[in-house]
Amino acid sequence: MYGLIGRMTARSGQREALIKVLLDGVGGMPGCLSYVVAKDPANPDLIWITEAWESREAHRASLALPAVREAIARGRPLIAAMESVAETVPVGGQGLAASARSQG
Amino acid sequence: MYGLIGRMTARSGQREALIKVLLDGVGGMPGCLSYVVAKDPANPDLIWITEAWESREAHRASLALPAVREAIARGRPLIAAMESVAETVPVGGQGLAASARSQG
């Protein structure tokens, strides 16, 4: 599996709009096992995104999906900064698709 | 919703054993919407844990569950360091329980 932990800073006052764009784009992405969008409670512009994918390739392929490309285009003007916190290798847990619940 | 992003450093050579303890303890925790355990690909001792819960209280209550208390006791000797990266407010995404897929 392939995982990402990232932080996205919305332009001032644009976090809600950016979250909507992010959530609109995440339905039915092949190979996506988990994609959680969260607000930072202390910083009103900060969004955390934690992801788990069947593979790096599945994640890369998702970037070509029309819905994702559209979300990226709609989201870009709302984003002040993006930061990758970590690339990870998910190994299991709760909230992953059944096939991935415990893989090395 | 209530979320956590954390890093755990296993004692040298103990990451696999610690991951097993973590995964053993996560089944059926009430209010747990997502709990993903991941390896850091660059650091052989580092584990990332990303969590989403229905509420802070649900997370706190989980710490009293027998299976979780046992996992904490078994895991403690294997842990060199723990660090909270962020407390978050998940607002939706994929891989969360149906009831939580899009909440404020």
UniProtKB/TrEMBL annotation, chains A, B:
Superkingdom, natural source: Bacteria
Keyword Cell inner membrane among record annotations: no
Protein's name according to its UniProt entry: Antibiotic biosynthesis monooxygenase
InterPro entries: ABM_dom (IPR007138), Dimeric_a/b-barrel (IPR011008)
Statement: the UniProt record of this protein carries the keyword Oxidoreductase: yes
Entry keyword set: Monooxygenase, Oxidoreductase
Pfam families: ABM (PF03992)
Molecular functions per Gene Ontology: monooxygenase activity
Native source organism of the sequence: Sphingomonas parva
Domain ABM, first and last residues per copy: 2-89
PROSITE patterns: ABM (PS51725)
